[in-house]
Amino acid sequence: MTNSNNAQHRSILQNIARRAMVDRGLLPAFSQQALSELDKIKGAAMPPDGAARDLRKLAWCSIDNDDSRDLDQLTVAEAMEHGAVKVLVAIADVDSLVRKSSAIDEHARHNTSSVYTAARIFPMLPEKLSNDLTSLNFGSDRPAVVIEMVFADDGVLLKSDLYRAIVCNHAKLAYSSVAAWLENGGPMPPEIAAVDGLAENIRLQDRAARKLKALRHVNGALDFETIEARPVFDGDILKGLEIEKSNRAKSIIEDFMIAANGVTARFLASKKLPSIRRVVRTPKRWGRIVELAAQHNFTLPQGPDSKSLEQFLTKAKAADPDRFPDISLSVIKLLGPGEYVVEQPGSAASGHFGLAVRDYTHSTAPNRRFPDIITQRLLKAAIAGKPSFYSTEELEALAKHCTEMEDKVKKVERQVEKSAAAMLLEPRIGEQFDAFVTGASEKGTWVRIANPPVEGKLMNGAKGLDVGVHLQVQLVSTNVERGFIDFARENF
Questions:
Q1: Nearest-5° angle of CA 386, CA 389, CA 394?
Q2: What is the residue extent of each domain of the chain?
Q3: Distance, CA of 448 to CA of 454 (rounded, Å)
Q4: Whole-model pTM over 0.85
């Protein structure tokens, strides 16, 4: 590929994405049967009278990416006595229109999530649903499952409840503008100013979220900072990679969703129903994490300990903020991936090492993740006092399938990201870069450069290198179609 093909960047990447999905057994398009089902769906499915609370008048708002159209959750807060805060999280009732074993449900079950590639999103559900009828869109009355939580002034959960409700989004907000307002004294987004009391409500949400985060960190939750870069297009021409950073607006949603997922898991257990938990087990490469900390003059215990690891990460960030994303990525790689497991009532939960929580499920993004639809069906059964929609054997098979397909989805997304990066780096073959090792195994050694933040394979001089090592590399080749970016070690 050459620069003369600039006008084809988006279509080339879309074709690469489709092939990558097919190669890994994912479905890039909906079946005719699913589309026929979709044609018969004419509007949102409201619960029958008495089955849900009418909470439409609360000051619900959504905070998401600037271009998000599949809105899964709304939030609102209420100040209470002695500094306590009631937080309500409304989750889109996707199950109300996506019935178990329907053709639409089978497509979602197969792929298990939306696939977010550089040039196109392949949604798990048809956009008529995920972007409209099951999305908590501005000004639209929608059915939801509400997680109600009351937190003490120090962030400790005092009580919680779950129930069905009808809600209405009164302000569709974006992370970027809300963060600029909260953090830097930027202008108040007009969508906030248009709703009486919403400004103070969001500030209350912000304060509550920060207390939740602080409490989790006391318990050993890990505070990472990684460099996430997304391709930027001018029309169909790929112009560069834009780095996305965390901010306080994102933290509000992240911290509330972590809390909501914990409440959801415990609610199902209290109703004697099984659940699919999201777990990150004790890291297998703890020894290498200990070595990495020692290189930064910090001593970790020989056995895995999340509180000590969080202390190291805090110290490393203060000592060298510019290098901290490299350390974060190294530790994340060494912790290993998460997985889905079935939790039976009364059994011991495996927990999530990185979040320092014992009870954790995925429940807050049913428009784009199938495990969340499963959890939603279990929750609605629990609320109604009915038995589980799934047998133990079904859940075991689904947990295994979702873990396997999540890996395939991530590989497709990474391949297309690398194809986009290869497009950008093609004119820079022969240049030298600062890099650090992000992966080292029998399959090869991978390094990441800083500008642009791109990962590629090290073709020589890998002996003795491990995750976290810094080195100089030279870009030697790229392959857009295969997403290959190859580096050679300098002076080797």
A1: 145
A2: 3-267
A3: 5
A4: yes
